[in-house]
Write a structure and sequence with these properties.
This protein is of the alpha/beta class and 546 residues long. The chain is built from 16 helices and 27 strands. It has 3 domains: 197 residues, 3-Layer(aba) Sandwich (Rossmann fold), CATH 3.40.50.980; 170 residues, Rossmann fold (3-Layer(aba) Sandwich), CATH 3.40.50; 104 residues, GMP Synthetase, Chain A, domain 3, CATH 3.30.300. Helix 4 crosses helix 5. The protein is globular. Bound molecules: 5'-O-[(S)-[(2-aminobenzoyl)oxy](hydroxy)phosphoryl]adenosine (3UK).
Length: 546
């Protein structure tokens, strides 16, 4: 499928509404935050759309969604798309200062948020440097902020309905949509009009705003969701990646609904492994999306397979960072299910190189997804020979066009038809792609490239290791050498002897020069809100200690 196969006038609300003809009464969503049929979500989205129009929202206006994964998230999203707006999915885990930056940079006119987040939102609105000139209205789901004072908002609402403490008028979501009709005609958007805006945290610097068009959603659903994963109507999909992340948005809503499958939403924290397991057992999904660290955390639970019935699963998906082969094997042995690892990015909306069910090469990212082309090039932009490391470029119709308000970075990243991923890759003789770290995480040790990912995979194969991260740390003469931070499995205790043993193990299982020179045991690794290890934090920590 190509973008040109979609009508010129295309609105991605069609992905939800295509279910109204034959399966309006089928469950579209379930989970701790409530369930909805397709008809119910579509009606709620229409009410949101009418409410937005009443507030003056027009085509291309941004509506920020700062909510836990919930039916309201889905209705707010599709209601925004339907009136031609741009849904700005905001990461709930960020600090108020980061929220302020995103709301301001993204020029959100409306913010739809949750009562539980009200204190953080109030702080964000207050702290925004230069204020938030574009923000006109806050809509609060659940506790409207007029309850007891300890909800973080003052207990007295001024006459205009804005709770004291919020510098922007606010109103209650239920009351707001309750006053709206359930009929709404979609805006006649062009398939290339933007409909989503996401901020990608990256490993350094300010988050970058990335816009996607209506066509990108429909295309990725077809190319990867159906083409690779083989999603079907009787699937029940649960993504532990949240809706504010395009990995989760595709996994939880766009892809399942594009085939009439239903989704499980978890409003709680994805890193609360016992809660995630409880949801898996209660809602019996057939497909589960997670990040590698999530799988590692589950595998670290005592007697995972004996204590939990996860037999409903037919496939698992991993993305966000490379899935180490030992984790893949442990999961397969424990659960009897394959994990499909694929690399995607916010820039490309979703996965563009992927393993396929039944053809997985553990530790690899798989092969290019139909509809995408990739190249591995050296510093001069020339293709490298098979087997050699280089920089990954990708080309495809779901690629974003620019970073919002970041021209210099845009010109370095969006290179005509090609997108510079910042990832080091090699391709083997059979055409499988192997991730070898980020451009900036690669180490040169004794003049030779060392991929921290390879050292981590080796360490992870040792039974004492649950999680680990390797970064380059200068030695006594200033030469960069690998250092490993290690989170131990239950029953192991950090000691000099164990550190020695782990280094020996690396020497046995890898080229000796790649071994970590130091091992530091830690209770947890610093991570981004989307679960990626912040190696630069470890580098900083190592620098500070010297
Ligand atoms: C890294 C991977 C190795 C890689 C994402 C699936 O992660 C997503 O988007 P982000 O914009 O980050 C993109 C970067 O993350 N990465 C992602 N997946 C893998 N590295 N193996 C993988 N399987 O550095 C990439 O450039 O946060 C993933 C779908 C949608 C997404 N947005």
């Amino acid at each position: 499928m190509r973008a040109a196969d979609l009508p010129l006038r295309y609105n991605a609300v069609e992905i939800l509404e295509r279910n109204l003809a034959d399966r309006a009464g089928k469950r579209a969503l379930e989970g701790p935050a409530g369930e909805r049929t397709f008809a119910e979500v579509a009606a709620e989205a229409n009410r949101v759309g009418n409410g937005l129009r009443e507030l003056g929202v027009r085509a291309e206006d941004r509506v920020a969604i700062l909510l836990p994964d919930s039916p309201e998230w889905a209705a707010a999203f599709f209601g925004t798309l339907k009136v031609g707006g741009v849904a700005l999915g905001v990461n709930t885990l960020l600090t108020p200062a980061e929220h302020a930056y995103i709301l301001r940079d993204g020029k959100a006119r409306i913010l739809i948020t949750d009562g539980s987040l009200a204190p953080a939102v109030a702080e964000a609105l207050e702290s925004a440097a230069g204020g938030l000139p574009d923000l006109e209205q806050v809509i609060v789901v659940g506790d409207s902020g007029r309850g007891p004072a300890d909800d973080g908002l003052a207990d007295e609402a001024p006459a205009d309905g804005a709770p004291a403490g919020l510098s922007v008028p606010s109103r209650d979501y239920s009351e707001w949509i309750g006053a709206q009709g359930a009929q709404l005609a979609p805006a006649a958007t062009h398939r290339e009009d933007f409909c989503t805006l996401n901020y990608s945290s990256g490993t350094t610097g300010m988050p970058k705003g990335i816009l996607h068009a209506h066509k990108d959603l429909a295309l990725s659903a077809r190319l990867w969701g159906v083409g690779v994963l083989g999603l079907r109507e009787d699937d029940v999909v649960y993504s532990n990646a949240k809706l504010f992340f395009t990995y989760g948005l595709g996994g939880s809503l766009i892809f399942p609904w594009s085939v009439g499958a239903s989704a499980v939403l978890n409003p709680g924290a994805g890193r609360d492994t016992p809660a995630v397991l409880a949801i898996l057992e209660r809602h019996c999904p057939t497909i589960f999306f997670n990040a590698p660290t999530g799988y590692a955390a589950m595998l670290a639970m005592p007697d995972l397979a004996q204590e939990h019935d996860l037999s409903s699963l037919r496939l698992c998906v991993s993305a966000g960072e490379a899935l180490p082969a030992p984790v893949w094997h442990r999961w397969k042995e424990t659960m009897g299910v394959e994990i499909i690892d694929g690399i995607g990015s916010t820039e490309l909306f979703h996965i563009f190189i992927s393993n396929r069910p039944g053809e997985v090469r553990p530790g690899s990212s798989g092969t290019p997804v139909d509809g995408y082309e990739v190249r591995i090039v050296d510093e001069a932009g020339e293709a490298v020979p098979t087997g050699e490391l280089g920089n990954l470029l990708v080309k495809g119709e779901t690629a974003a066009l620019f970073y919002l308000h970041q021209e210099a970075l845009t010109r370095r990243t969006f290179l005509g038809e090609w997108v510079w991923t910042g990832d080091k890759y090699r391709v083997d003789e059979e055409g499988y792609y192997w991730h070898a770290g980020r451009t900036d995480d690669m180490l040169k040790v004794g003049g030779i490239w060392v991929s921290p990912v390879e050292v981590e995979s080796t360490l992870l194969a040792h039974s004492a290791v649950t999680e680990c991260a390797v970064v380059g740390v200068p030695d006594s003469v200033g030469l960069i050498k690998p250092k490993a931070w290690v989170v131990l499995a239950a029953g192991f205790e950090g000691s000099d002897r164990l550190a020695e043993e782990l280094i020996e193990y690396c020497i046995e299982h890898m080229a000796a020069y790649k071994r970590p020179r130091w091992i530091e045991f830690t209770d947890g690794l610093p991570k981004t809100a989307t679960g990626k290890i912040r190696r630069f934090k470890l580098r900083e920590a190592a620098g500070a200690r010297r």
